[in-house]
Amino acid sequence: MLIHAEIELFQDLLYIEIVIKQVEIRIEEAWQMRLFVRPEWPITALWSRGTRVMTKEYGELVDMESGCWAAVLGHNHPDVVRVIHEQVDTLLHTHQFFQTEHPEKLVEELTEAANLPTKYSGSFLSSGSEAVSLAVMLSELLTGRRKKLCMNITYLGACKDLRQPRDNMYWDDLDVTGCLGCGELRTRVCNKRSDTNEIMKDTNERNCATCGRYNHLDFSQYASFVFEPGNSGGLVLTPPEKLLKFLAGKVRATGGLLVVNEVTTGFGRTGEWFGFQHYEFLNDESNAPDLIALGKGLGNGYPISAVLARENLVMAEMTSM
Ligand SMILES: Cc1ncc(COP(=O)(O)O)c(C=O)c1O
Predict the structure, then answer these.
(1) How far does the centroid of ligand 1 lie from the alpha carbon of residue 315, in Å?
(2) 233 C-alpha vs ligand 1 centroid, how far in Å?
(3) All domains of the chain, ordered by start, with CATH?
(4) How distant, in Å, are the alpha carbons of 67, 241, 277 from that of 116?
(5) What's the CA-to-centroid distance between 93 and ligand 1, angstroms?
(6) From atom 13 of ligand 1, which residue's Cα is the shortest distance away?
(7) 178-206 pLDDT, tens per residue?
C-alpha cells in the first residue's frame, strides 16, 4: 500500500517537474526569440501573410501560434482566399431548406485525405465550441443519458456548459494527472520530447483495471466519454493509450459513445491528420470515434467547424425514427 502511494507520489513529482521544465523552456525560448509572452496592449493587426502578421504598433511579427492555432497552412493562404472569394460571389447564404453540394463532398474528401478508419456523415457550423456542444448533445440524444465522462486536463470550449469547472451534475471530470506518465516510455504517445523515438511498445505491466483508480465509477451512466487527444490548454499532454482504451472501452461497453474533440489537435497539428490517430486502437474500424468535433484548422482561419458522426450511428438513429 505504502509502496503504491510512494510510486504515485513519485510520478506526481516527476510530472510536476516535467511541467515546470517545459514552461521554463517555453519562456526562455520566447525571450530569446523576442516573442510576446504577454503582449503589451494595444496590438493592432493590419494584415497577415504566411507566418507573418503586420501590426500597427510593433511592425512585422512572426506568428508562432498560427493565429489561434487555426491558420495551419499559413495566414491568407492563396487557395483558401480564392475559394472564399468565389463562394462569396456565387452563394453567400441559404435557407435551411436548401441543400448545397459542399458538405457531403467535404466529408468525402476529408475521409479520404485523412484515411479515417470508417465512414462518417458531417454537419457544419461556425465555431469549435458549437461543434463540441453539438457532438456532446448528439451523444445525449443517441443514448438517452445526460452525464458525460471527461478528463480534468481537457478544454472543450467557451460555452458555459463546456467550461471548467463543469457542472458535476452532468460531468465527471477525472483527475488524470497521476496517470499521464504511466507506461509513457513505451507507449505510442508520450509526454517527453526525448522519448519520441523510442520503440513504441508498451511493456509496462500495470493496467488500469488492476490499478483500480477508476473502478468506483458507474460507467453505465455516461452518454459519452469526451476526449481531447492532446490537451491544448497550455502544454500538449497525450494521455497513455492504455488509459484511453480502459475509459473508452468501459463507457462503450455499456452503450455510451466516444466523442473526440479535434478542434485544436486536428489538421496535422500533432503530426497526424487527427490527434486520435496516434492511438493505435482507435484506427481500427470497430473502435473508431463515434463523434468527432472539428474546428480551427478546418477553415485555416475562416470560421467553420464540423461534427462528424459515424455513418452506422446515423443510420441506426434514422431507422429507429
Ligand atoms: C480543444 C478546443 N476545443 C474547443 C475550442 C473552442 O473553439 P472555438 O474557440 O472556435 O469556439 C478550442 C479553442 O481554443 C479548443 O482549443
Answers:
(1) 29
(2) 9
(3) 2-69 (no CATH), 101-319 (3.40.640.10)
(4) 26, 18, 9
(5) 25
(6) 157
(7) 888 787 554 555 554 444 444 445 556 67
